[in-house]
Specification:
Number of strands: 42
Number of helices: 40
Distance between the termini: 31 Å
Shape: globular
Helix content: 25-40%
Oligomer: single chain
Largest sheet: 17 strands, mixed
Strand content: 5-15%
Radius of gyration: 35 Å
Length: 1272
C-alpha cells in the first residue's frame, strides 16, 4: 500500500465517507485485500444491515444453512448502526437474544469484580443490577418458539443503533393468522407480538436518531403503551415515521399519546395513518397500567422546542379546533406542516390565533390529505394569517378558483416563495399564474396541473405579454398554456405573443425541468352527425416554431435559438410531439446539431406522442417493433424507472412477464445495496402468477420490474384470441392468466393513482381474489375502471368484493359491465383461499371517504334496496352516481339512504334505466335530496308520463341545475321543456333528443310565450321545436310567436353550440287512397325569417338581427338549410356581411346537404365572398336519419380546402386513435383497436406520462447505424 493510501485509510472519517459511495460487494472486496483493510473496513461493512424479505428467508431465518452468517452477525453486532428488517427476522432475533441473555445471566466478571471496600462493592453491584434490568427480556415481550426459530443461536443485543426501520408485515402473515386460529403455534408472527418485539429493540438503543415503523398494531392498548414508553426514552431521537400496515383506523387518543411521548429532541414527526374521531367500542387506553413490569406511561407536558416538520394522521370527519390546537400549541418552532382535513364546523379563527401565537416560524404548507377541502378554504386562510413575506412552500391538491383572494395571497409572499405546487386543480385563472411568474423572484419550483387543462391554463396573451418574468431562479416548471390548433395557417398564428413567450422561457437560465403543455379545444363529429368541441389532450398539440430554427428561404419562423442559455436543462417534455408539428415547419439535422451543442445536460425529450407511437414507427426507421429491436429493449430496461404511465395489451404483457421472471431469477443471489436496482432483488414471482413461454416470448430478454408507475392501463385482449381458445399450448393468452399478470404488475407499483383494466376475467374466483388484494394495497389509488371483454355478467358478490377492496384514497370507481340477476349454483367465492401463499382476502369495513364518482354494473331486473344500499352507505361524499336500474319496490328506501348518507350527491346520471324509463326513481331522488342541490340530470330513454311531477322536481333544483341531458326520449311534454327554460337560471348544457321528434318537441306556442327565459348562461343547446311547414300556405304563419321565440334565442348571450331542429307533420295519400300523416325530417324544414334581415319594400319580415348578441356562437346547425327557405324570404349579400360582423367565431353552419353542394354554389354566388371572409367556416351534411343512429358525416369545407375540423367516414377499425365516444364513459379505443403488431410477442406502448424516457424515441431522427441508448 502506498504512503498516500495508508494515510487516507488511517483516517476513519475519510474511510467512512468513501464507503458511502460503495456497494456492499465493493466493501467486501476491499476488506479482503489485506489485514489492515480488513480491520479498517470490517465495521463499515456491517454499519448498515438491511434484512429484507428475500434476504431474511435465505440468509438468516434458515438456521441450519446459515450458521456462519448468524455467527458473523453475532461477532459484529456492535458495528451495526442502521438496521432495516421485517417481522420474520424480528421473531428469530427475539428468540436468539433471549437465549443469549439467559446464558449470560451468571456473569463471572461480576463475581470477580467485587473489591474489599464497601463503597466499590456497592457501586459495582448497583451498576450490574441496572445492566441486568436493562438487558433482561421484559415480561411483556412475547417469547414463542416456532419451527423456524427453535434452533436459533444465541445472538447478542443491538445496543448502538442510530437508525431503525422495521415492518411487521410479512409475505406469509395471513398464513400465520390462519395457523394461529387453528393451533396457536405461530401467534408470535402476529402484528401485536411483532410490535412489542420492536418496542423492546428500541429500548435497547438509546442513541437512536431515526425510527421508521410500518404496520404496528396501534389498536392494541399494550402496544400503544409500550411504544409510547419506548419513544419517550429516546432522548436523541430526531425523526420518527409511523405508517399503517392496513386500512385500519386509529383512535384520536392514540395519536395524542404518541405525540406527547415524543422527546424534545424531535425534529420531524410523520404519522401517515387514518384517525377516527368517533367513539369506538374499546374503552380508553389505561396509561397507568404497568404492563407486567414496564410501569405507567408518563407523557410529556413541555412543548417540542425542536420540531420543524409535522404530519398528523388524516381524519375522516376533519379535526375540530379543540382537537388540532393542542398539537399546534406544542410546536413553537414548526416550519413545515402537512395540512390535514379541518372540519367545516371547526372554529377556524381559533386555529388561526393559535398558529399566529405559537407557530410563528411556519413557512411550508405541504400537500393536504386526500380528504382535504378541495376548495382550499382553510389553506388560503392560513396563507393569509402567516406573517407577510414568510411562506416559502405551498403545496395543495385541488382548488376551486377565488381569483382575487388567491392572487393577493401569492403577492403577500412573493419575495420568499420558493415552491408552488397545486395539483388536481379544477380551476385557476390565467392572471394568477401570470402574477406568480412576474412577481415571485425566489421561486424555484412551479407546478400547476389538473384534470381540465383549459380551466388552469396560462393564456397566450398573458404568457406573451411585455411584462418581464421575475422568477429567474426557476428550476422546475410545469404549466399549461393555451396554444392555437395545429391546423391554423401560418399567417393566422399570433407570432408576436409566441415570440415574447419564448423569450420569457429563454430567460430562465437555471431551468432543469420543463414540462410545457398546450391547452385548447378541437372539433369532432358525433355519431349523430353533429360537430362538437372537446378538450384537446396535451400531446395532440404543439407550440408553433418552438423546436425550429426557421427557414429564411420560405420565411417560416423558428425560435429554438431563444433557448440557447438553458444549459442546465435535463428534461423537456409536454406538447412537443414531432408528429403534431405543422408540415411547413422546418426541423431536421440542423435542429439536432443545435440541441447537442446548447443542451449538453439533456436526458429526456418528449418528441413522440404515445398515442401515435405505431404511426411514428412507420415514419422514423428507428421506431421498429419493440420486440424485434434488441437495442430498443435494452434502452427500455435502462429507463424503466422513468416510466410513470404504462399502457399495454395482453400479448406484450405475456412477453414482459417472461422477461421479468428471468430477470428476477438471475438476480436472486445478488448482494443488497442502497440503489433502486438492488431493491428489485427482493421481488419474486408469486405462485399465483402464471408464466408460460410461447413462441413469441421464448427469446424474451431479462427485463426489470416497473416500480414507479402512477398510471396503468391494460387490455387482456388480443386479435387472435378465438383462434387459441381451445389451444392449450397458448392458454397463457387467455383472459384469466393475463388478468393475474396484470394484477402482479399492479402490486409492484404502490404509487399507482389510475388503473384501467379492459377484459378482466372476473368470472374466475382466483382472479377476483388476487385483483382485490392488489387493489386494497394501493393507498394512493384515485381512479379505477374495469370493463368487460364481452357480455360478461358478474355475481353480486364479485361486485361487493371489488368495491370493498378499494382503498380510502379512491375518488372515482367505474365498473362498466352487467350484473347477474341470481346467484351462481356453485356457491359464494371462498375468500379464505390463500391462492398459493397470497393469504385470504381482507375487505374494507370503513366508508370510502373520498369517493366522488360511482358507477356500478347494470342489472336488467334492477337492484333491490338490500343490494344497493350497502354501497351507498360507504359513499358519504358521493357527488356523481351513474344510476343502474332500480327495482320498483326499493325506490323509497334507497332514496332515504341517499338523503341521509350521501348528503353531497349532486350529479344524477342514468344511461340504462331498462324498465325504469318512466323516471319514477329519478323523480323520487330529485324530491328527497336537499333542495337546490342537484347540478346534473342525465336520463336516457325517458317517457314523460308524469309531466307535472317532473316539472316540479326540476323547479326544486332550478337555481343550481347546470346540465340536463335527456337522450333517446320516447315522449317529453312541451310544458316540461318550457319549465326548464323559464326556471333554471344556472343552466349551461341542455340536450333533448329522441326517436320521435314530434313527441319530444317544444311547441311553438310555449317557445313564443311572453314569459322570459332565465337560462341566459346556456352554452350548449340541442332541441326540437314545432315549426310550420314551408311547403304549404294554407294557413298564415304565426309571426308573433316566431318573433317572440327569436327574441328568447337572442337573449342567450353565452351560447356557443346551438342545434335548432324543427319538426312537424305532412299529409300524404297512401296506396289505398287514405290520407295519412308522416313526420317531416328536420332537414326538410326551415324556421321562417330566422336567416333574413327582412325587406321593408315588400314587407317581408326578418329576425336575424335579434341574434346579434350571440357573439360566442361557434356552431349553428339544424333546420337551417337554404333550399328549404321560402322563396319570398330575402337572403343575400346583406345577410352574409351581417354574419361576418356579428358571429366572428362561427366555425360550423349547416346551410346545405352534402349532395346539393354544387347546386347551392350556383344558386348563391355571394358564398364566394363568404369563403374569402371566413375560411374556417364549414357546412355540414345533414343526416337523413335521426341523429341517434346517424353516421359520422363527411365534412364540407367552405373556404380553404385543406383546413378541416372533422373526421371523414371511416370504419371503426381505422379509427384506432379516433374521436371520443359520445357517452361520458371513456372507451379505450386508442389501444384496443391499435394496428396489428408485426413481430413476435406483440408491441408495448410505453409512455412516461410527463416522465417518458424512451431511448429509441429520443433518437428518432438519428442515423440507423447509431446505437440507441442513453449516455453511459
Amino acid at each position: 500500500m502506498s504512503n498516500a493510501s495508508a494515510v487516507f485509510f488511517s483516517i476513519p472519517e475519510l474511510t467512512s465517507e468513501l464507503c458511502l459511495y460503495l456497494m456492499a460487494s465493493d466493501i467486501l472486496k476491499l476488506k479482503l485485500t489485506s489485514r489492515h483493510m480488513h480491520t479498517t473496513c470490517r465495521p463499515l461493512f456491517w454499519n448498515t444491515l438491511r434484512l429484507r424479505e428475500e434476504e431474511v428467508s435465505k440468509r438468516f431465518t434458515n438456521v441450519e444453512l446459515n450458521k456462519e452468517g448468524l455467527a458473523a452477525l453475532g461477532r459484529n453486532i456492535d458495528s451495526v448502526r442502521m438496521l432495516q428488517t421485517k417481522g420474520r427476522f424480528l421473531s428469530l432475533y427475539t428468540i436468539g437474544l433471549s437465549k443469549y441473555l439467559d446464558e449470560n445471566s451468571n456473569n463471572d466478571d461480576y463475581n470477580n469484580s467485587k473489591g474489599d471496600t464497601v463503597t466499590t462493592t456497592f457501586s459495582l453491584e448497583q451498576q450490574w443490577q441496572q445492566q441486568q434490568q436493562l438487558l433482561r427480556r421484559p415480561e411483556w415481550v412475547p417469547y414463542v418458539l416456532t419451527p423456524e426459530t427453535e434452533n436459533a443461536p444465541a445472538l447478542p443485543p443491538f445496543t448502538k443503533l442510530t437508525s431503525f426501520r422495521v415492518s411487521t408485515v410479512s409475505g406469509y402473515i395471513w398464513e400465520q393468522e390462519r395457523e394461529r386460529i387453528e393451533n396457536g403455534s405461530r401467534s408470535t408472527l402476529m402484528a401485536t407480538s411483532l410490535s412489542l418485539q420492536t418496542c423492546w429493540i428500541m429500548t435497547l438503543n438509546p442513541n437512536l436518531t431515526y425510527v421508521l415503523l410500518h404496520g404496528l398494531n396501534l389498536r392494541d392498548g399494550r402496544v400503544v403503551r409500550c411504544l409510547a414508553d419506548a419513544i419517550s426514552s429516546l432522548c436523541h431521537l430526531k425523526d420518527i415515521t409511523i405508517r399503517p400496515g392496513n386500512n385500519l383506523w386509529v383512535k384520536y387518543e392514540v395519536v395524542n399519546i404518541l405525540f406527547r411521548s415524543c422527546p424534545s429532541s424531535l425534529v420531524s414527526l410523520k404519522m401517515s395513518l387514518d384517525t377516527n374521531n368517533d367513539d369506538m367500542e374499546e374503552a380508553l387506553i389505561d396509561l397507568d397500567s404497568k404492563d407486567i413490569d414496564a410501569g405507567p406511561v408518563v407523557l410529556r407536558t413541555e412543548p417540542l422546542v425542536n420540531l420543524r416538520y409535522l404530519q398528523l394522521p388524516d381524519s375522516y370527519y376533519g379535526y375540530t379546533a379543540k382537537e388540532i390546537c393542542p398539537f399546534l400549541e406544542h410546536c413553537p418552532r414548526l416550519e413545515s406542516w402537512h395540512l390535514p382535513l379541518i372540519s367545516e364546523s371547526a372554529e377556524e379563527e381559533a386555529i388561526i390565533k393559535v398558529i399566529q401565537a405559537n407557530c410563528r416560524e411556519l413557512k411550508n404548507l405541504l400537500e393536504g390529505s386526500a380528504n382535504a377541502d378541495l376548495k382550499g378554504a382553510f389553506v388560503t386562510t392560513v396563507m393569509e394569517a402567516v406573517e407577510e413575506q414568510q411562506l416559502e412552500t405551498v403545496e395543495y391538491y385541488g382548488y376551486l378558483n377565488d381569483p382575487g383572494k388567491m392572487a393577493a395571497l401569492f403577492q403577500r409572499h412573493c419575495y420568499v416563495l420558493q415552491k408552488i405546487a397545486i395539483t388536481g386543480c379544477d380551476c385557476m385563472e390565467s392572471p394568477i399564474i401570470h402574477g406568480i411568474l412576474t412577481s415571485c423572484r425566489e421561486l424555484r419550483y412551479l407546478e400547476i396541473s389538473g384534470r381540465y387543462s383549459n380551466q388552469i391554463a396560462l393564456s397566450l396573451e398573458d404568457a406573451g405579454s411585455g411584462q418581464e418574468w421575475a422568477c429567474r431562479k426557476l428550476r422546475h416548471l410545469m404549466v399549461y398554456v393555451t396554444v392555437p390548433p395545429t391546423s391554423t395557417e401560418s399567417n393566422h398564428l399570433p407570432w408576436d405573443f409566441l415570440e415574447q413567450f419564448y423569450r420569457h422561457l429563454g430567460s430562465l437560465h437555471e431551468l432543469e425541468f420543463l414540462d410545457l403543455r398546450g391547452a385548447g379545444y378541437r372539433p369532432y363529429t358525433t355519431e349523430g352527425g353533429e360537430i362538437k368541441e372537446r378538450e384537446s389532450e396535451y400531446d395532440e398539440l404543439t407550440f408553433p416554431g418552438l423546436f425550429s430554427l426557421g427557414d429564411p428561404t420560405t420565411g417560416e419562423r423558428g425560435f429554438l435559438s431563444l433557448f440557447k442559455n438553458l444549459k442546465r436543462l435535463k428534461t423537456f417534455q409536454g406538447s412537443l410531439s414531432w408528429n403534431r408539428t405543422r408540415e411547413e415547419e422546418p426541423r431536421g439535422q440542423k435542429e439536432m446539431e443545435w440541441v447537442v451543442e446548447h443542451w449538453p445536460s439533456l436526458k429526456m425529450f418528449e418528441a413522440i406522442s404515445h398515442f401515435y407511437l405505431p404511426i411514428t414507427q412507420h415514419s422514423y426507421p428507428r421506431f421498429t417493433d419493440v420486440v424485434a429491436n434488441k437495442e430498443g429493449l435494452a434502452a427500455f430496461g435502462r429507463n424503466i424507472d422513468s416510466v410513470r404511465t404504462f399502457q399495454t395489451r395482453g400479448d406484450f404483457m405475456t412477453f414482459y412477464i417472461v422477461g421479468l421472471d428471468r430477470y428476477l431469477k438471475s438476480n436472486s443471489t445478488s448482494n443488497s445495496s442502497d440503489n433502486d436496482n438492488d431493491k428489485r432483488q427482493v421481488i419474486c414471482r408469486p405462485g399465483w402468477v402464471p408464466c408460460a413461454t410461447i413462441k413469441e416470448s421464448e427469446n424474451a430478454p431479462m427485463l426489470p420490474p416497473f416500480t414507479k408507475l402512477t398510471s396503468f392501463r391494460a387490455s387482456m385482449l388480443y386479435g387472435d384470441l378465438l383462434d387459441w381458445e381451445h389451444d392449450e399450448s397458448r392458454s397463457i393468452l387467455r383472459a384469466a392468466p393475463l388478468t393475474l399478470q396484470a394484477s402482479w404488475i399492479i402490486s409492484l407499483n404502490p404509487n399507482l393513482t389510475n388503473v384501467f383494466l379492459y377484459g378482466a376475467d372476473l368470472e374466475n374466483d382466483r382472479v377476483v381474489r388476487c385483483l382485490s388484494r392488489v387493489i386494497s394495497s394501493l393507498r394512493h389509488l384515485r381512479d379505477l375502471t374495469i370493463t368487460p371483454s364481452h357480455a360478461t355478467r358478474l355475481e353480486h358478490q364479485v361486485i361487493d368484493i371489488i368495491f370493498r377492496s378499494c382503498p380510502q384514497s379512491m375518488v372515482r370507481l367505474k365498473l362498466l359491465m352487467d350484473a347477474k340477476n341470481r346467484s351462481r349454483d356453485e356457491g359464494p367465492i371462498d375468500l379464505n383461499n390463500d391462492d398459493i401463499d397470497a393469504g385470504p382476502v381482507v375487505l374494507r369495513t370503513e366508508p370510502l371517504a373520498n369517493l366522488r364518482y360511482l358507477q356500478l354494473p347494470d342489472k336488467y331486473n334492477g337492484y333491490t334496496a338490500e343490494q344497493i344500499c350497502p354501497f351507498l352507505e360507504h359513499c358519504p361524499r358521493l357527488e356523481s352516481w351513474v344510476v343502474p336500474c332500480i327495482a320498483e319496490s326499493a325506490e323509497s328506501e334507497i332514496a332515504n339512504v341517499i338523503r341521509t348518507k350521501c348528503t353531497e350527491f349532486k350529479h344524477y346520471i342514468c344511461e340504462t334505466p331498462y324498465f325504469n324509463y318512466k323516471g319514477a326513481f329519478a323523480m323520487t331522488i330529485l324530491e328527497t335530496t336537499e333542495e337546490q342541490q342537484m347540478e346534473t340530470f342525465i336520463f336516457a330513454s325517458y317517457n314523460d308520463e308524469w309531466a307535472e311531477r317532473m316539472s316540479a322536481s326540476i323547479r326544486r333544483h332550478c337555481e343550481v341545475l347546470q346540465r340536463i341531458k335527456l337522450c333517446g326520449c320516447h315522449r317529453l311534454e312541451s310544458s316540461t321543456i318550457h319549465t326548464i327554460l323559464i326556471s333554471c337560471r344556472g343552466l349551461r348544457y341542455l340536450v333533448i333528443n329522441g326517436y320521435y321528434p314530434n313527441k319530444i318537441a317544444l311547441s311553438l306556442e310555449d317557445a313564443g310565450s311572453a314569459k322570459e327565459w332565465v337560462c341566459t348562461k346556456l352554452r350548449h343547446w340541442e332541441i326540437y321545436v314545432g315549426v310550420p311547414s314551408t311547403s304549404t300556405d294554407s294557413k298564415p304563419l304565426p309571426w308573433d310567436l316566431l318573433e317572440q321565440f327569436y327574441r328568447h334565442l337572442g337573449s342567450l348571450h353565452e351560447l356557443e353550440f346551438l342545434s335548432l331542429k324543427g319538426t312537424g307533420n305532412s299529409s300524404y295519400k297512401s296506396a289505398d287512397g287514405e290520407i295519412k300523416e308522416k313526420t317531416i325530417e328536420y332537414d326538410r324544414l326551415s324556421f321562417p325569417g330566422l336567416f333574413s334581415l327582412g325587406d321593408p319594400a315588400t314587407g317581408e319580415p326578418g329576425f336575424l338581427s335579434f341574434l346579434k348578441n350571440l357573439s360566442q356562437l361557434t356552431t349553428f346547425q339544424g333546420s337551417l338549410l337554404w333550399k328549404c327557405v321560402r322563396e319570398e324570404e330575402p337572403r343575400g349579400q346583406k345577410e352574409m356581411e351581417w354574419l361576418v360582423e356579428h358571429w366572428p367565431l362561427l366555425k360550423v353552419y349547416e346551410i346545405t346537404r352534402y349532395d346539393s353542394l354544387p347546386l347551392i354554389r350556383n344558386d348563391f354566388p355571394y358564398l364566394k365572398w363568404l369563403e374569402e371572409q371566413m375560411p374556417q367556416l364549414m357546412a355540414q351534411k345533414a343526416s337523413s336519419r335521426n341523429h341517434i343512429h346517424g353516421n359520422n358525416p363527411t365534412p364540407i369545407i367552405i373556404g380553404t380546402p385543406h383546413v378541416t375540423y372533422s373526421v371523414p367516414n371511416v370504419s371503426p377499425t381505422q379509427l384506432s386513435y379516433g374521436e371520443p365516444s359520445p357517452s361520458d364513459a371513456p372507451r379505450p379505443s386508442h389501444f384496443l383497436n391499435a394496428p396489428q403488431e408485426q413481430a413476435n410477442g406483440g408491441q408495448a406502448q410505453v409512455q412516461g406520462g410527463h416522465q417518458q424516457n424512451d431511448d429509441a424515441g429520443a433518437e428518432a431522427g438519428a442515423d440507423a447505424n447509431t446505437e440507441a441508448g442513453e449516455p453511459e
